[in-house]
Amino acid sequence: MAANKDDITKPDMVIWHGSDKRLQSRQQVMSAQDKNYTSLAGYDVNAKKFMQYNDSSIRAINVLPKQLYAWAADARAYELDQNLDGQNYADIYIVDLKTGSREKLFEKFYIPGYYSMPQPSPDGLKFSYGKNGQFYVYDISSKTHTNITANVPTSFVNTEDDHNVVKPMTQVFAWSADNKYLFVQDLWDVWQLPVNGKGGAVNLTGNGAKEKIRYQERYQLDPEEKGIDTRKPIYLRQYGEWTKKSGLVRVQAGKTGVTVLNWEDADISGLSKAKNADVYMFAKGTFTTPTEFLWGMLH
Predict the structure, then answer these.
(1) 208's torsion region: left (phi>0), alpha (psi -120 to 50) or beta?
(2) What is the largest CA-CA distance in the chain?
(3) Helix (H) / strand (E) containing 154
(4) What average pLDDT is seen over the chain?
(5) Are 131 and 146 contacting, i.e. CB atoms less than 8 angstroms apart?
(6) Structural contact between residues 115 and 165, judged by C-beta atoms closer than 8 angstroms
(7) Number of H helices, E strands in the chain
(8) How far apart are CA 82 and CA 18, in angstroms?
(9) Which residues neighbour 44 within 8 Å (Cβ) at sequence distance 6 or greater?
(10) pLDDT at 58 over 90
């Protein structure tokens, strides 16, 4: 009886080369992503011109707000080392989306974590980045770098990150809507940092490091906002490092210090607001009670 061709075991062979920049195991994991890769392109209606902004040499590209510029990363030269020692480097470029021109900003830029990468301003003309434990702001138009944390009396290095990296940066909450400030957490408190490096940083919460309270999250109540409006209150989640309590606080516009809205032996999270009313909703749960959703006004 002839064998069914579907029952015949097919040979499986993987060919790799010792000089491959990407380890074979990583090639296999990323094969689907490689096959489905697409490039970013644009069409200038007035000039009737089509432009492709990146290609196989620079795959990672991120369009900044207002779509005037983008930043792109080329990690090809460092890919093998990254696979071997876990350290992430890339050459960073600024791409002019009007002309398609590309200018190298950094060579072998070290990226120990997400917040070291460019975090753009709402106007798309600046971005923050982390380097050697400091936050900087790059102005695309003037091509200037400003260290905005050098004189701030705290550290913005995430010393609790247990990855094999050097000086990962703490969390960047957001830019201000007027592009003048960057809001950053230092593991405890939330700081308002002027992006021109002048005028002095402001510790908005004030008591985090002293009372061992972490202000972990800032709630974006308007899903369409373009940065933090400094004329409005800021709502944050607080967490007690030793008490394990949590709750919600409000920082009034133009002031420092927090107004505690609730502070309980429970997991308080997920604050949201009705679009056309001063009504809020948040989640509350414990290890012994299921999560419930509460709504009402916050006083």
Answers:
(1) alpha
(2) 89
(3) none
(4) 91
(5) no
(6) no
(7) 4, 21
(8) 16
(9) 50, 51, 98
(10) no
Tell the burial category of 198 from Cβ atoms under 10 Å away from its Cβ (0-12, 13-18, 19+): exposed
Range 1-8 average pLDDT: 66
| Residue 126 near residue 69 (C-beta atoms within 8 A) | no
Tokens of 117: 């990468």
User: Rounded to whole angstroms, how far apart are CA atoms 76 and 200?
Assistant: 40
Q: What is the pLDDT of residues 25-35, one digit of tens each?
A: 777 777 777 77
What are the pLDDT digits (tens) for 72-108?
A: 999 989 988 888 888 999 999 999 999 999 999 999 9
Residues 6+ apart with CB under 8 A from 162: none
Is the CA virtual torsion 224, 227, 233, 238 positive or negative? positive
Domain boundaries, the chain: 42-111, 112-203, 217-299
% of the chain with per-residue pLDDT over 90 = 75
Q: What is the pLDDT of residues 40-52, one digit of tens each?
A: 899 988 888 899 9
Calpha distance 180→174 (Å, rounded): 11
187, 131 contact by CB (below 8 A) = no
d(CA 64, CA 126) in angstroms, rounded, equals 9
Residue 210 CB coordination number (10 Å)? 9
* Structure token pair of residue 235: 């709502």
Structure letter (DSSP) for residue 6: G
- Tell me the residue type at 159: T
